Amino acid sequence: MQTNQEFDFEAFKREAIKGMYEGKPFNGEKGVFAPLMKHFLESAIAGEMDFHLQEEKARGEANRRNGRAVKRVKSLSGEFDLETSRDRAATFEPMILPKRQVIITEELEEKVISLYGRGVSTRDISEHIKEMYQMEISATQLSAITDKVIPAMNEWRTRALQTVYPFVYLDCMHYKVKESGRVVTRAIYNILGVDIEGKKDLIGMYVSETEGAKFWLSVITDLKNRGVEDILIACIDGLKGFPEAIATVFPLTQIQTCVVHQIRNSLRYVAEKDKKEFVADLKPVYQAINKEQGFENLVKMDEKWGKKYPVPIQSWYNNWVTLSTFFEYDDQIRKVIYTTNTVEGFHRQVRKVTKTKGAFTSDNALMKLVYLVVLNISEKWTMPLHNWSLTLSQLYVIFGERLKLHLTN
Question: What pTM value is reported for the model?
Answer without folding.
Answer: 0.70
